[in-house]
Amino acid sequence: MSEEQIKNLEAQFEARIARDEKIEPKDWMPEKYRKTHIRQMSQHAHSEIVGMLPEGNWITRAPSLRRKVALLAKVQDEAGHGLYLYSATETLGISRDELYEQLHTGKAKYSSIFNYPTVTWADMGAIGWLVDGAAIINQVPLCSTSYGPYARAMIRVCKEESFHQRQGFEIMIKLAEGTSEQKEMAQDALNRWWWPSLMMLGPTDSESVHTEQSMKWKLKRKSNDDLRQQFIDQTVPQAELIGLTIPDPDLKWNEERQSYDFGEINWDEFWQVVKGHGPCNKERMKARVGAWERGEWVRDAAMAYAEKQQTRKEKRAI
Ligand code: FAQ
Predict the structure, then answer these.
(1) Separation between Cα atoms, residue 247 and residue 265, nearest integer Å
(2) Among the four residues 101, 130, 144, 243, which has the most C-beta atoms within 10 Å?
(3) Is the dihedral of CA 243, 247, 249, 255 positive or negative?
(4) Is the Cβ–Cβ distance between 108 and 99 less than 8 Å?
């Protein structure tokens, strides 16, 4: 293709984005657009799959049958989101095997938040309330992102995340209304998950390398800092409502901005976790790689069965 033809295609592509048209898998797209989407969508898929691990830790220890059923369903939803997002990523011309390989070799990232341990039952409440709460704030704008398969996937994912957030908040309400030990457990979980939840929304806008381009392509609709502020403004009144204290002495309502001012985030901690040195990074990767290796015979058996069926079909056709 000549340089001029490429320029023409690029101009048509940009015009479609400007008109808020969806870009579909078979449409022409700039290589950088394709790669950026593979990066973000696959990291999102990996986050859902790795995100099953901290909660999976509590399925056998849920305090009642009702809690166990809800947690089991939530973790299954996360598996569904991961598979859905992997399929959407595959429409960009990358295979599932390559995507897994990127995760297992550390080439692809997954959300920093899932590298923290779940030490008490209250952590199940805090994850639903805070982590799913932050995920929804980040993901609702993604429902109108420019790449069609991602936008459509996000509509369903957001509906389920919203249910997850409510079940988490309900766990927190019950604990906060319970005995003093239970309320302490809820407060302790809030203390440990608050700051990592703020970090989860990504580095500050001045440090974010992808925001500018992603905003132009309407992959991102809001900046990391805007999403973080929205999360804080939404969550602080919820903590107040159930009598818990946000662990930030600098948190203060700013009348002029009609928003909360908040304290300094420990970005060193964030980057340490992103680079693989968080409390559970090694454990999470070991679990994922182990599951992949243990599943080899299942994949082999499925492939052998598919081949056998195909041969039978071909023989019948002769
Ligand atoms: N953790 O330039 P930016 C969930 C990386 S799903 C690790 O700002 P961008 C459901 C970033 O990749 C949670 N790495 O990047 C659930 C980049 O590195 P790279 C996941 C992070 O893409 C709930 C570098 O830093 N959600 O929770 C993080 O414009 C409960 C520079 O950053 C999504 O993935 C981080 N937190 O903005 C499951 C949503 N933040 O790639 C179970 C879709 C940044 O160049 C239980 N993703 N980095 O090597 C996004 O919206 C964006 O990708 C951001 C980052 C906002 C995460």
Answers:
(1) 12
(2) 130
(3) negative
(4) yes
To test the pocket of ligand 1, the residue of 32, 33, 42, 47 to mutate (highest count of ligand atoms within 8 Å of its CB) is 47
Assigned token pair, 189: 């979980």
pLDDT tens-place string over residues 186-235: 999 999 999 999 999 999 999 999 999 999 999 999 999 999 999 999 99
In short, whether 40's Cβ falls inside 6 Å of ligand 1 is yes
pLDDT in tens, 52-91: 999 999 999 999 999 999 999 999 999 999 999 999 999 9
Tell whether the model's pLDDT for residue 130 goes beyond 90. Answer: yes
Closest approach atom of ligand 1 to CA 134? 27
CA 69 to each of CA 27, 81, 83, 218: distance values in angstroms, whole numbers, following the listed order: 43, 18, 21, 38
Contact 283/216 with Cβ under 8 angstroms? no
Cα(109) to centroid(ligand 1), Å: 8
Q: Which residue has the tokens 């799959």?
A: 49
> pTM value?
0.95
